[in-house]
Amino acid sequence: MINSSSKLIGLFGQPVSQSFSPSIHNYLSKKYKKNNVYMCFEIEKNNLEKAVFGIKALNMKGCNVTIPYKVDVIPYLDEVDKNALLIGAVNTIKNKDNRLIGYNTDGVGFVKSLLEENYDLKNKNIIILGAGGACRSIAVELANKEVATLEIRNRSEKNAKEISQLINNNFSTKATYNLNPLEENDLEGVDILINTTPVGMNSMECPIDCHIKPHKNLTVCDIVYKPHETKLLAWAKENNLKVIYGINMLINQGLLAYEIWEDIKTNEEDVEEIKRIYFNSLK
């Protein structure tokens, strides 16, 4: 029940109309009896600074940040968590005593979705499609888990080069980047293929050539969660590959964000209930 004491939490990004995040966080507030309401805000780039300052002006509890502002938002914060600072991207902001503190739960949430499948990441070879804020956080967390190699595939060089250097300068993982479209022979020796681009969001576009015939030990992950089975994951299943769905990462990173705002501990029951809500929303 929204009343005069309700606190606002938001999602800043563009686009946000497809977001499932309100369902996650409004469910958590109801379950844990927190008087919050979570809403989405479509922010134009020239209004990002004003929007962030609005967190203080409106005494919001905090917000999530999504595409394309996870990097751009950092200069407007009072403090950035050590892990988020290393990553160079923020997806969660907490308003603590009128100070805005930035965190990143993307990478930890993604890796948790692999570990939940009992996947051993040590010494694995990985290709990541895209070089945005989600790629940064996922690459850092994978390097934390001592994967052997990371290759960033992106059409433009600047971000891909930056992320590769970030990994090579801070971890034992060997990181490279490649600006060419993925080809069949590029997947030889690769254990995991991860899409961190928005390609496939609410469409049947695929970030790779779907005529590629991959080897059978490849695991394919997509952080896009609408549709549930993206074109990339459909390609993977047609080739009898193991898949990790985007909704798993979204729920994991969302639970971590809520724990930051409210200093509580969520549980596995929350994961299952949010998945039930998600699948019902697809009907």
Distinctive features:
single chain; 283 residues; alpha/beta; six-stranded parallel β-sheet; 12 strands; 20% strand
Describe the structure in your own words.
The structure is a single chain. The chain is an alpha/beta fold. The chain contains nine helices and twelve strands. The strands form two sheets. It has a six-stranded mixed β-sheet with strand order 2-1-3-5-6-4, with helices on both faces. The protein has a six-stranded parallel β-sheet with strand order 9-8-7-10-11-12, with helices on both faces. Helix 1 crosses helix 8 (246-262) and helix 4 crosses helix 8 (246-262). The chain starts with 6 loop residues before the first strand and ends with a helix.
Please give a quick description of this structure.
This protein is of the alpha/beta class and 283 residues long.
Silhouette:
globular
Low-confidence region ranges: none
C-alpha Rg (nearest Å): 19 Å
Estimate the mean pLDDT confidence: 96
With strands numbered from the N-terminus, the spatial order across the biggest sheet is 2-1-3-5-6-4
**DSSP, total strands:** 12
| Percent in strands | 15-25%
User: Helix tally?
Assistant: 9
Oligomer: single chain
Instruction: Report the biggest beta sheet as strand number plus sense, adding barrel if it closes.
Output: 6 strands, mixed
> What structural category characterises the helix and strand content?
alpha/beta
Residue share in helix: 25-40%
- The end-to-end distance, rounded to whole angstroms, is 26 Å
